């Protein structure tokens, strides 16, 4: 291992926060990383880390080296991307991350077709509902619902993602068909809940164009959209759901849209997120492929909802 590799390893240790996490990412033993960092210090003739048995801190020299290592990684990445753009045929590894439902339903079919067209491209797909660090973990593309807060990343809107209120016919038989949003106050609801987001009401626009929120009586919470949909299909709750999780449940009559004459507030759109503007050929082609698949005007998932263009518009 040369000095460049050791510097990048040091950067990874600092970004991951520990030797153990960096070792896990690289699938190597922690002691290997420790020895390589010590070797780097010997080669440079300066101490880079102050270590204890449980933690470490950067020395002044170490902090300066981390800045240089970050610049070095960026330069190496740009060099590789530049070379790849001269390839006539896309090749190399395309690393993608997304939530589980987006990956399974919408990315996997595109990946299958993409690799038939470009067999020299390898694809690594990580399905994770938690956000990952695109830069430190080397991802080319992320697909997320909602625009990222990290201003250093580039985000492009892929498709809109509207909301609807759904219930099964069995639920309507039990509780009746609500005629106004206030009717939902005492009806059992399923709602999304995670460490970063908890849905406790339905946001809508009233007849005067003012934003309002109707509180819901949530009797079931989960951090997985498909689980919430399954719960609603049981007939025991209604749910406020994003359109992209709908398959053929409405077409088959297993779910019924409720209160379609109210105007629901817009939900977060789907975005493609990437760390650099200068995309390699394989990344740019995949980005174009997913946009074509999802539909540039009307999203693919809206075709699963008959008459959806007239619903929830007020």
UniProtKB/TrEMBL annotation:
It comes from the Bacteria. PANTHER family: HTH-TYPE TRANSCRIPTIONAL ACTIVATOR TTDR-RELATED, HTH-TYPE TRANSCRIPTIONAL REGULATOR. Pfam families: HTH_1, LysR_substrate. This is LysR family transcriptional regulator. Belongs to the LysR transcriptional regulatory family. Residues 1-59 form the HTH lysR-type domain. Keywords: DNA-binding, Transcription, Transcription regulation. PROSITE patterns: HTH_LYSR (PS50931). CDD domains: PBP2_CrgA_like. It comes from Pseudoalteromonas rhizosphaerae.
């Amino acid at each position: 291992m040369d000095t460049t590799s050791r510097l990048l390893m040091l950067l990874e240790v600092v970004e991951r926060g520990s030797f153990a996490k960096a070792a896990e990412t690289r699938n190597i033993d922690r002691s290997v990383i420790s020895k390589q960092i010590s070797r780097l210090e010997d080669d440079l003739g300066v101490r880079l880390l102050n270590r204890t048995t449980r933690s470490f801190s950067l020395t002044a020299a170490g902090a300066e080296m981390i800045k240089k290592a970050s610049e070095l990684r960026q330069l190496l990445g740009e060099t590789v991307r530049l070379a790849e753009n001269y390839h006539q045929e896309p090749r190399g590894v395309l690393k993608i991350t997304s939530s589980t439902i987006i990956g399974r339903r919408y990315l996997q079919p595109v990946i299958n077709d993409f690799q038939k067209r470009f067999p020299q491209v390898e694809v690594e797909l990580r399905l994770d509902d938690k956000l990952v660090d695109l830069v430190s973990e080397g991802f080319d593309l992320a697909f997320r619902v909602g625009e990222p807060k990290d201003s250093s990343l580039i985000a492009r809107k892929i498709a809109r993602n509207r909301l609807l209120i759904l219930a099964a016919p069995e639920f309507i038989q039990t509780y009746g068909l609500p005629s106004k949003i206030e009717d939902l106050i005492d009806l059992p609801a399923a709602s999304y809940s995670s460490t970063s987001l908890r849905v406790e009401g339905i946001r809508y626009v009233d007849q005067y164009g003012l934003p309002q929120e109707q509180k819901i009586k949530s009797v079931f919470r989960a951090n997985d959209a498909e689980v919430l949909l399954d719960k609603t299909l049981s007939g025991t709750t209604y749910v406020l759901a994003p359109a992209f999780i709908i398959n053929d449940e409405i077409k088959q009559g297993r779910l019924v849209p409720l209160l379609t004459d109210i105007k629901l507030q817009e939900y977060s759109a789907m975005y493609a997120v990437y760390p650099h503007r200068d995309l390699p050929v394989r990344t740019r082609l995949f980005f174009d492929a997913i946009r074509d698949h999802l539909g540039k005007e009307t999203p693919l998932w809206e075709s699963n909802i008959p008459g959806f263009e007239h619903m929830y518009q007020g």
